Amino acid sequence: MHKKTLREHHQSLKAKDYSSVELTTYFLDRIKNSEDLNAFITVTEDRALMQADQADRTIGSGKMDLLTGIPLAHKDLFCTKDVLTTCGSRILDNFISPYDATAVNKLDAKGMVTLGKTNMDEFAMGSSNETSHFGIVRNPWDKGRVPGGSSGGSAAAVAARLAPVASATDTGGSIRQPAAFCGLTGIKPSYGRVSRYGMIAFASSLDQGGVLGTTAEDCALVLEAMTGFDENDSTSLNLEVPDYGASLRKPLTGRKIGLPKEFFGEGIDGDISASIEEAIRVYERLGATTVEVDLPNSEVGIPCYYVLAPAEASSNLSRFDGVRYGHRAALYEDLNDMYETSRAEGFGAEVKRRIMIGAYVLSSGYYDAYYIKAQKLRRMISNDFSAAFEKCDFILGPTTPATAFGIGEKDDDPVSMYLNDIFTNSANLAGLPAMSLPSGFDSNGLPVGLHLIGKYLDESTILNAAHLYQQQTDWHQRIPGGYE
Length: 484
Ligand code: GLN
What we know:
3-stranded mixed β-sheet, globular, 11 strands, binds glutamine, 15 helices, alpha/beta
């Protein structure tokens, strides 16, 4: 059952080959047998079985939707009513959300079943899932390696087929980089497509909800269900929800693929370059042509992102004060000491580092030199994409310069961790849709990710390109040893 796509599950549920309760129980059992991955912070077994039972009744009444009765997991950054929602942090280790995130609500309304909440880097800050207060997550392809981050729990869960699909978020690469490390397909839509209401904020101008799954089609179906205007999020786009499923099969004949020379330079693992070159051949066979494009400011993407994201984080995280919700220190002298001690105990090292960097770049003496400068660079990066998209329909490159690294390998070197986002964070800075899909393996048997970036609001073209690639290749069907 764990090898089926969402459409296949839909057919089987409709034909009553199995019930949603049976399907849900099956995945709950897989989760129980894979606790060593540490992919989940909370498993909501009872609730899941209740939702599945409800879904079975809907199916029985003949009113089912395509997603009704299909289980999924949510990154523990999406608020879930009456369920622990930690964002991977000690400061929220007792936070039971009083409401649902809009994205969760929309998927619930379709009749999807929530299996539980997945592990993640604390406040989504990281590229390895090693900063979680709830422990590291292991990559099912090699348990000595990281699954990527920050959506590492969602990625490990889907890669090990503990859930058919999972929600995730991407501020600088947190859907695409773990997708690449775990051999999955993941999409981050254009900024504003998925409501951020009830998504615990990291960097509000960059955060976007999206999906991790095994196929582009599965991602398209779930993304479509999560998308749409929400008056509770002032940055939510008031646009019609596109029919992503309908455009998946369009031929690629005549489409132009932009290859930025900055994405094919030095520092990329040889096996990754070979795999991406091979993917380009597949696209050529599908009728697309390639054109070289320029993203001259890509080299400042990392410094720009690592000024802006911490700046926004330092402001967003000021709400965690031990008063309104979350962890409060047991011992303190006065009010200020209570704030300080609660935050000192509640936040981990990476989160503290970001708050300090953010407060620094926003402080009056440095605001112009760092924050304003980074905003200007952000505009230049975005303009580069606009110019590139005059020449092509979408951009292609590697998702990451290297495959999954070892647990602990980058512990003492935050900058080398930050460099993981080198190809991914510019799409967030420019608000563009982007995805990663499996395009092969390196000589250690670790998955390689192919990165596609689309024009603003044009998720359809990259989903279409990803789907057609997956009709020609079977990388997305490979399952890590021990989980087949
Ligand atoms: N690795 C990046 C960071 O640590 C991206 C995280 C994300 O996309 N949430 O900030």
